[in-house]
């Protein structure tokens, strides 16, 4: 195929969830265990996947040329909803499944086939034939779209109990099979409160609410979380590009969570067991540590201080048990320049800004890391009613590293958000 499936929803498409899907939340089946995942590896991708290294990693971890993959794309619109179905412009669950299957085969997988569960095939989530298909797989790849469609197709009831197909995937993960997901397919893997939408400015200003909202700027979340395969913290995708640091600091603080993993586009967080993780790809994986954070009020508006932020690039490692990051092999400590860090004026990369600055908060942090004359820098929100300031400061434990190929990674930058 020449087409590329969407890694996530557009802002106009984010509200399109069919009300007729309530039937998919019916009879409860076997509940999943409260665990942080089994012995199989997890690969969480931030969307817009193109990096060859990530595909190669997925295939290798699943068994290389012997690996049999099942592709799950239930987060995409079904074929019956797609006016371009059957053409090279298609963007639906079936053709997206074929697209990812072809890519995995190109990267050395032994076989790859679509698992036919979507909004056109709800009954297949309980099909013995599909369960048997799942049981033969060594790896599973979950595509992007809208993670709520995964909820409505593969989970059951208010307690989010497993459908027969999801129970079979869970069993294969416990037996050592790989689970990978991009964009919505990564977000759905988490155990804690799962974000369903929202922009950073509105999230910081208004707070979070449980549910799924038609307004894509409202910070919503599902209290029950997703599949529960990843239990080390909240997960978000398209992270730096869409300025999602603000929404996830607010969601974590509101729901009593102390860690967030934000994954950039074309980047993967690879978790291989016992809390061991590493970064693969062209962007960064961001770890927000809220153990020492304090949320409160500043002149009538929400505020938070004491968040610690690490941005890790290709080859860097993270230990979720000890909460420590380490640079990849061959990365040298960054030697700061003599310049000052510049203040930012669109810190959350607002969609309302006439000249939106994707990745602005990460740019500010890296410029601060590279500055030998600044110990802190401020970034302002584009919106002014009210306006917020994000304060970034180097801590005593701050460290930064440079790689000619991967750019700057840093650890333990202090973050605060206040009314300006």
TrEMBL record:
What is the scientific name of the source organism?
Nocardiopsis metallicus
Q: Which molecular-function annotations from GO does this UniProt entry contain?
A: carboxypeptidase activity; peptidyl-dipeptidase activity; serine-type peptidase activity
Q: What is its EC number?
A: 3.4.15.6
Family classification? Belongs to the peptidase S51 family.
- Kindly give the Pfam families that the UniProt entry links to this protein: Peptidase_S51
The family database entries (InterPro entries) matched by this protein are listed as: Class_I_gatase-like, Peptidase_S51
**Which residues belong to the signal peptide in this entry?**
1-33
Full protein name: Cyanophycinase
Record SUPFAM superfamilies = Class I glutamine amidotransferase-like
Q: Which GO terms describe its biological process?
A: proteolysis
Q: Which leading EC class covers this enzyme? A: hydrolase
Q: Which CDD domains match?
A: GAT1_cyanophycinase
Q: Is Protease there in the keyword field? A: yes
Lineage top rank: taxon: Bacteria
**Which UniProt keywords are present, listed alphabetically?**
Carboxypeptidase, Hydrolase, Protease, Serine protease, Signal
Q: What is the lineage of its organism?
A: Bacteria, Bacillati, Actinomycetota, Actinomycetes, Streptosporangiales
């Amino acid at each position: 195929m020449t087409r590329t499936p969407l890694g996530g929803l557009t802002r106009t498409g984010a509200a399109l969830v069919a009300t007729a899907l309530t039937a998919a939340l019916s009879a409860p089946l076997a509940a999943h265990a409260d665990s942080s995942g089994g012995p199989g590896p997890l690969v969480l991708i931030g969307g817009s996947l193109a990096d060859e290294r990530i595909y190669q990693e997925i295939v290798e971890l699943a068994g290389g040329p012997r690996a049999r993959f099942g592709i799950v794309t239930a987060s995409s619109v079904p074929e019956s909803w797609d006016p371009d179905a059957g053409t090279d412009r298609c963007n639906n669950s079936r053709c997206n499944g074929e697209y990812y299957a072809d890519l995995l085969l190109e990267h050395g997988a032994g076989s790859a086939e679509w698992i036919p569960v979507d909004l056109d095939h709800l009954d297949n989530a309980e099909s013995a034939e599909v369960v048997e298909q799942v049981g033969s797989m060594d790896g599973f790849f979950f595509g992007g779209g809208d993670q709520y469609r995964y909820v409505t197709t593969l989970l059951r009831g208010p307690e989010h109990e497993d459908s027969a197909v999801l129970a079979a995937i869970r069993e294969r993960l416990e037996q050592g099979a790989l689970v990978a997901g991009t964009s919505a397919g990564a977000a759905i893997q988490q155990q804690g409160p799962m974000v369903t939408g929202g922009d950073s400015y509105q999230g910081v200003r208004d707070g979070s609410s449980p549910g799924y909202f038609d307004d894509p700027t409202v910070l919503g979340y599902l209290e029950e979380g997703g599949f529960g395969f990843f239990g080390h913290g909240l997960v978000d995708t398209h992270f730096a590009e869409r300025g999602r640091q603000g929404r996830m600091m607010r969601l974590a603080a509101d729901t009593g969570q102390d860690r967030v993993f934000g994954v950039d586009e074309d980047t993967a967080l690879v978790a291989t067991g016992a809390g061991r993780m590493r970064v693969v790809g062209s962007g960064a994986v961001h770890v927000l540590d809220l153990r020492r954070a304090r949320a409160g009020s500043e002149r009538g508006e929400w505020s938070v201080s004491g968040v610690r932020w690490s941005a890790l690039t290709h080859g860097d490692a993270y230990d979720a048990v000890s909460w420590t990051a380490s640079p990849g092999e061959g990365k040298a400590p960054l030697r700061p320049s003599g310049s000052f860090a510049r203040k930012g004026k669109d810190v959350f990369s607002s969609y309302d800004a006439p000249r939106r600055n994707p990745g602005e908060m990460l740019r500010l942090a890296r410029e601060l890391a590279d500055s030998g004359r600044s110990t802190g820098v401020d970034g302002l929100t584009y919106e002014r009613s009210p306006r917020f300031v994000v304060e970034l400061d180097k801590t005593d434990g701050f460290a930064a590293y440079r790689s000619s190929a991967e750019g700057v990674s840093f650890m333990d930058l202090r973050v605060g958000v206040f009314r300006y």
